[in-house]
Design goal:
Helix content: 40-55%
Strand order of the largest sheet: 7-1-4-3-2-6-5-8
Largest sheet: 8 strands, mixed
Shape: elongated
Strand content: 5-15%
Number of helices: 12
Order of helices and strands: HEEEEEEEEHHHHHHHHHEEHEEH
Radius of gyration: 60 Å
Length: 421
């Protein structure tokens, strides 16, 4: 009975093993290839995400997936795709990560057990949300240094990295700085001030660098022109080399001219100083004249003043209204005052026109009667006879009869002579 039971158990175990081997014959690489029943990220409602890795040599299936050192999932599958590893991971429901999540492979201990770490990016702001079916590309994946790499770098430093020369370097530094501590302190203080000044001038330095960058861009845009100029420069230098003698001769002539000019100025210094000294009173008087000098220049445009011209002239036309006072007393007062002929024109009168306030004849052609200024004729003396106007009729010589004058002529004379009518 006992043997039968043992035989049954042996057959059952053999059947289970054969069935498992048949079901996993195509993908069995060891016990780690079988899904573990209590791994996170394999239950109902879990989220599947694909992660591309450039190197996942020591990472195996069922490895932990952590966020902030908290396990939130596991690695379901690792496949080879176009010379990089393609990881399929499962995450627990409710795991909140940005769409631009970064993935790295790290080690949990020095023995080499690795896990996959997910975290938000540090060089850019987080955006979106990681959801089921998303892919973390190679540009956002990486790995921490492994223990073997750290030990290899340490061995390289200790054996062939010049670590044995540190003592020699330290001794040479001590010998160099020994007795110069004060100088070193002053040097450090000056370096501190120099760095502080550079920090204060940071904006100016940035502006200089930006301007240099703009200049470089401009030169790059003018690359063809700069190339032509560089190609032309050798011929120009060649011409300068050929004309070297003439250039030297010209410069020597300029030097001789400078010597002559210096000698002339030195010899004529006294005369020039005397001329300037003689000009000093004239310049002083001009300075004392002040505003009177420019005002007197307005007489150049007599009888038209300078100031009103800009008010009268508008573009290429001019509007002007002028009153001419040509009466004899005014002319005598303006032109003969203070001369021996003063009062000559004031004593010349023309015959009065017929009618008050009107001029019926031309005043320049009317008969004149000359009487001494401020001297009345004696009583009983006859008045001097006056020539009659052409066409005048007999009658009172003081009332000449001239040619008839129209109303338009009267108005014109009224306007010119300033009469009132």
């Amino acid at each position: 009975m006992t043997d039968r039971r043992r035989g049954r158990r042996l057959r059952a175990v053999t059947a289970v093993l054969l069935t498992s081997a048949v079901l996993a014959a195509c993908d069995f690489t060891g016990p780690e290839s079988l899904p573990l029943p209590f791994n996170k990220g394999n239950g109902h409602g879990s989220m599947t995400v694909t992660v591309e890795m450039g190197n996942a040599v020591n990472l195996v299936r069922n490895s932990e997936v952590k966020v902030d050192d908290v396990t939130v999932g596991s690695v379901r599958d690792i496949a080879f795709d176009n010379w990089h590893a393609r990881l399929t991971i499962g995450l627990e429901p409710g795991t909140r990560l940005p769409a631009n999540t970064v993935a790295r492979i790290g080690q949990k201990s020095l023995l080499g057990a690795e896990y996959l770490e997910l975290e938000p990016p540090s060089d850019e702001p987080a955006r979106g949300r990681l959801s089921d079916g998303d892919v973390v590309p190679l540009s956002r994946t990486g790995r921490y240094p492994e223990t073997e790499e750290v030990l290899s770098a340490t061995a390289l430093l200790l054996n062939g990295g010049g670590l044995g020369q540190i003592r020699e370097i330290t001794r040479e530094l001590n010998d160099m700085l020994g007795g110069r501590e004060q100088d070193v302190r002053e040097l450090i203080a000056r370096l501190d001030r120099f760095v502080a000044d550079l920090n204060r001038q940071r904006r100016s330095l940035e502006a200089v660098l930006d301007n240099m960058n703009g200049l470089a861009d401009t030169v790059a845009e003018q690359d063809a022109m700069v190339g032509d100029a560089l190609d032309t420069l050798p011929s120009g230098f060649r011409v300068l080399a050929e004309e070297r003698r003439h250039i030297v001769r010209t410069l020597a002539a300029v030097s001789d001219f400078g010597d002559v000019a210096t000698r002339v100025m030195r010899e004529s210094r006294s005369g020039l100083t005397g001329n300037l000294r003689d000009l000093q009173p004239v310049l002083r008087e001009l300075a004392d004249a002040g505003k009177a000098l420019p005002r007197s220049l307005g007489m150049v445009t007599f009888p038209l003043a300078v100031d009103p011209i800009r008010k009268v002239a508008r573009g290429d036309y001019i509007n002007i209204f002028m009153n001419f006072d040509l009466t004899l007393p005014t002319l005598d007062r303006m032109w003969l005052a203070g001369t021996p002929f003063e009062g000559l024109l004031a004593g010349v009168t023309h015959l009065p026109a017929s009618g008050p306030g009107t001029r019926s004849v031309d005043p320049f052609k009317a008969p004149l009667r000359i009487r001494p200024h401020n001297v009345d004729p004696p009583d009983g003396l006859p008045q001097p006879s006056l020539p009659a106007l052409p066409g005048a009729t007999s009658g009172d010589p003081t009332q000449p009869s001239g040619p008839a004058v129209s109303d338009d002529d009267t108005a014109l004379q009224h306007l010119m002579l300033g009469g009132e009518g």
